[in-house]
TrEMBL record:
This is Acetyltransferase (GNAT) family protein. Residues 158-186 are annotated as: Disordered. Keywords: Transferase. PROSITE patterns: GNAT (PS51186). It comes from Psychrobacter pasteurii. Residues 6-178 form the N-acetyltransferase domain. The lineage of its organism: Bacteria, Pseudomonadati, Pseudomonadota, Gammaproteobacteria, Moraxellales. GO terms for molecular function: acyltransferase activity, transferring groups other than amino-acyl groups. Residues 171-186 have a biased composition (Basic and acidic residues). Pfam families: Acetyltransf_1. InterPro entries: Acyl_CoA_acyltransferase (IPR016181), GNAT_dom (IPR000182), MshD_Acetyltransferase (IPR050276). The keyword Iron-sulfur does not apply. It comes from the Bacteria. SUPFAM superfamilies: Acyl-CoA N-acyltransferases (Nat).
Amino acid sequence: MSKPDVFLRQATIEDVTSLLSLLNQCYREDVGWTNEAHLIGGIRTTAQGIETVINDPLHYLFVFPEVEAGKETGKILGCIAVDIKAEQKTAYIGMFAVHPSLQGLGVGNQILQAAETFAGRHLKADGSDNKTRLTMSILSQRPELLAYYQRRGYQLNGERMPFPEDGNNGEPKRDGLELLGLEKRG
């Protein structure tokens, strides 16, 4: 498959079902290189969790909709969230997913770059020259994912936290899962 033109727009409540499908497929099914199916079972998120993000005025969820003949089909091919924490000059990047059929074609790079640009502009909107920080967390058991983000300028920041076992993010298939904090200064 050739790389499509990436167009992002802000998610709406009408996107929840398609987003839920994409996120659970990319993270919990054994397809594509970004899945965590060997580490975590169950769901990646809930419809309510996605709705909460969409309705939060400082949390932006962007989607890459499938378009055919100039119209959206209702299918979401990629997504990324940017949670703005303006007082700390920080934006947290999460809910990043690209449909498995498009992985490895540069689509994810374009989506991540767009989110980083958005966050940087949003955080510098006050006109100050203060440095901004982009943060995220990844499973420590995913060295290939860590390498991907390091190639894009993210570095480990020393934060380590246990994988949440609240039932809203899936069920660990092994003990000792933890999340590592990453950051990129802008």
